[in-house]
Amino acid sequence: MEMFIVCLFSSVPLLLLVFGFMRSSRVLKRIGLLSYIAMVGIVFAVHWYFHSVYGFPFFLSLQESAVAIVVLFLMGVFFLLSVIIAHFKTPKSVRNTKAVSLFLLALFAHVSVLCFFLFPVGGKWEYANLLNRAAKVFEKEENIRDGKIRVELVFSAPRPCWRNCSDQDYRNLFMVKNYTNQPMHVQLKIEVFNARKEPLGHIESLETILQPGEYRPVIAKETNEEHSVWDQWTFTSDEQVAYFRYWYDARPER
User: Fold this and answer.
1) What is the average pLDDT across 199-208?
2) Is residue 135 part of a domain?
3) What's the per-residue H, E or C state across the chain?
4) Where are the transmembrane segments (predicted)?
5) Which of 9, 91, 157, 193 is the most exposed place for a label (fewest CB within 10 A)?
């Protein structure tokens, strides 16, 4: 939902610009350009908010940035070849290389903004909502076996999908909290089940240090830590996780 709202929000200035060029309307072009600049400014402000409040990095991870750069490079090469071919293949009477070049350049710039700034905003927004949900869950003093460690499933849902979604993996995020008054080395083993209470497998977490009262996402061996922070899930599954049980090894930090 968050990603859909971000895409919808970003498409309005772009549509105004497109209609302005199609109708040769200076007013629409000016409104579209100013609204697009304002939209980019708002997006930067939102990134700064997530960075200052939640500590999210401003930019994508190195791996995701590299993928985005490769995609943009290939797109740029394709656009350049398209302009060159159109220039030599199109008759002079209908040739408008400048307009085509400007359109492709604007499209390239918009895709760059999407990759590096707009899509990450959607991911950060979704993840921030999950952290807020976790805070409310851990405020309730329940399911604490011995007053030490508590684990909760705060998210289990498929990835955003536009078509052919039947084979989508489910993203699952567990969080763990230290209820003691001292730092603890914690390692978890979690068994997960679907809605029919059929086992989906076991997850073993990496050892982590939790400060008193601290809660954080569970990082497992299956977690892809090369993804951006807001796209790091405990693990993925073929079905939604409905039930779970866990064991933990917790010892004070020395």
Assistant:
1) 93
2) no
3) CHHHHHHHHHHHHHHHHHHHHHCCCHHHHHHHHHHHHHHHHHHHHHHHHHHHHHCCCCCCCHHHHHHHHHHHHHHHHHHHHHHHHHHHHCCCCCCCHHHHHHHHHHHHHHHHHHHHHHHHHHHHHHHHHHHHHHHHHHHCCCCCCCCCEEEEEEEEEECCCCCCCCCCCEEEEEEEEECCCCCEEEEEEEEEECCCCCEEEEEEECCEEECCCCEEECCECCCCCCCCHHHCCCEEECCCCCEEEEEEEEEECC
4) 34-54, 66-88, 100-119
5) 91
